[in-house]
Specification:
alpha/beta, Rossmann fold, 7-stranded mixed sheet
């Protein structure tokens, strides 16, 4: 590891975060203020739980309300530090989980912020990894806005979700991790038609060897939610 990752690793340990990835979301929060007191947050690919910690911190004091729901293929224990009773996790495959089941996890019957830190198991084959990354990203977008809002050719046939209603409330925000490739610009174009603003961010805590980049989508337009 280079000096910068060492710094973030040490800082994560010092501040009680379960992973250095906490600083990626902390930077997003500082720049975009996505999560506010009382927000309902869905964290896709939540292992090992660092984003759950930052999301819960961003909700403000317990009296402000709000909820954080984390979903991952792995069973994730809610970190005891920086988290409280507003945080829960679900062990499930996002590709097979219906929107109805996810919606039931939120008292607000939906979410004001959806975070996707999902990433495929990297094979080292660049084109394959990038394609799988886009597939996960499209699933996150489908969950957020509903399949009816997306171009038909972009939906993967393996997704057996018949509920076309999106989980993201109008005005809500969506963060999606992708691996850099030619396809990400098309992904950005789709999001810019659905959100008030969509911009790219490569957080400072990202390892120098990583091709990951985040698309920050702000302000879901009401006409885009199906």
């Amino acid at each position: 590891m280079s000096g910068a990752p060492d710094f973030f690793y040490r800082e994560a340990q010092r501040l009680g975060y379960v992973a250095r990835s906490a600083f990626k979301l902390l930077q997003m929060q500082k720049q975009y203020k996505l999560i506010t007191p009382g927000s309902s947050v869905l964290d896709l690919g939540c292992a090992p739980g660092a984003w759950l910690q930052v999301a819960c911190q961003s909700l403000g004091p317990l009296k402000s309300g709000g909820v954080v729901v984390g979903i991952d293929l792995k069973k994730v224990k809610v970190p005891p530090r920086h988290c409280d009773a507003r945080v829960q996790t679900v062990c499930a495959d996002v590709m097979n989980l219906t929107k109805g089941k996810v919606k039931a996890l939120s008292p607000q019957k939906g979410f004001s912020v959806i975070l996707s830190d999902m990433c495929p198991l990297v094979s080292g084959i660049t084109t394959r990894d990038a394609a799988l990354s886009v597939e996960l990203g499209m699933r996150a977008l489908d969950l957020a806005v509903g399949g009816a809002a997306l171009p038909d050719e972009k939906l993967d046939g393996s997704i057996s979700d018949t509920d076309n209603n999106g989980l993201l409330h109008p005005g809500g925000h969506l963060v999606i991790k992708l691996l850099e490739s030619e396809d990400v610009q098309e992904f950005s174009r789709i999001c810019k038609s659905l959100f008030r603003k969509a911009s790219w961010l490569r957080p400072k805590a990202t390892r120098s060897s990583s091709r990951e980049i985040y698309l920050i989508c702000q302000g879901l337009q009401s006409h885009a939610r199906m």
